[in-house]
Amino acid sequence: MINDLTVGHPLKLIIKFAIPILLGNLFLQLYQISDMIIVGHLISVNALAAIGASAPIYMVFLMIAFGFTGGLTVITAQRFGAHDDDGVRSSVFHCLLAALALSVILTTGLIVFLEPLLHLTNIPPELFEDAYDFMYVMCLSTVMIVLFNLLSGFIRALGDSKTPLYFLIFCSLINIALNFMFINYCGWGVVSSAMGTLVSNSLAVAICFVYMWYRYPLLRLSKEYIAYDTKVMKAHLRLAVPMALQFSILSFSIMIIQSVCNSFGPDVIAAIAAAVRIEQFATQPLLALGLSMATYTAQNWGAHLLSRIRKGVKYAFWISTTVSVCGFFVIRAISADMIAMFVDTGNNSGENDIALIIDIGQQYLIISTMFYFFLGLIFVFRNTIQGMGKPVLPLMSSITELCVRAFGAIYLARVIGYRGIMYAGPLAWFAAGILVLCGYLYYIHKFSKSNPFVWKMGEVRQYLRENSPVD
Questions:
Q1: pTM metric for this prediction
Q2: Are 108 and 94 in contact, with CB atoms under 8 Å apart?
Q3: CA distance linking residue 283 with residue 260, whole number of Å
Q4: Distance CA 390, CA 301 (A)
């Protein structure tokens, strides 16, 4: 259902838009956690460690694509907020061109440089073969994953966050079933997980495209809109490229941490891989709120409603703070039990120390929960600034995260061992969170003082839309 986020109470709209995104992301995280549990129980802890050790490499390439498509669809949302139907269709065409070109380049690059990248991250020899096989198949799924996220981005740009949820649930359920079947009946080992991702995402893209074509006429492309325009493409790339760099910097910093983590052996790798999955699950409300603010801000920016953006940010800040405090207490209370789900606690006679894995994972979660507030600042203010079409400051915040994470992963790990890795992410959240908060305050002050007539006319148009008589 198309939803105009420029009309109505900001708090209700943001929550209503965020809930389907949250449910979808939670479902996706549940799938990823269940996938790792299946691998950890049905194959081995070393297989779990191989996936955890190699995944950050893939995430560097994948996050480039996610950031790129996210930047592209900001333009789509802005055109929709401005009630420019022709602009929406033109945006869809140029987004498809740019995303397809990028995904092919990324897939090729990842396949060509896979082996040296694995060596670069210090993957232990006993994990290398499984990690390579898993990553190679994942490379083949890149195009489908990018297309699925782009199509979902188009739908969210129109204010519909429910439909992507349904497709994500479908994709996740198919993925879990295929992983279980491939592991149990095909005997493909860790490759089973990657094959499930490839097949399920391919099905999801096909169904999503057909549904979008029939359900959303505004997103259909007719002959007059299939025309390349350098000016339009540059406008899209002006947002997409910095966001791709931003996401790649973040994922590259995670790869640095993983490289240091890999030097501590399979038990530490498995523990931190499990803890990171739980952390990602726990912080999904903050991520959903951020994604909601990106679309909300983009539509209202396109409609020239600056005061409305400020109101939405105020509500989002308090929601983020509440979620962070709740996460602090809940995750701390159940952290040990959650880590234990990833390993076979009934079999502690092998080469892996199960008690040590649980203890390390619990330590990681206890430390990270203290900094959820600053992660919330990043999601709310970074996405708001991106929705305004200002990509430079979010990119600077990502560079800040990279530097702080690298310091934590490299220096602190030398001083206090693997515990240094646990502080790398939280310290990066603190630094980047303060930066984007200050940046948002600067931009709001700057824009409110410039072009006041534009903002006033936007409010007039909004008033007329809300109070116009209905035929």
A1: 0.71
A2: no
A3: 24
A4: 11
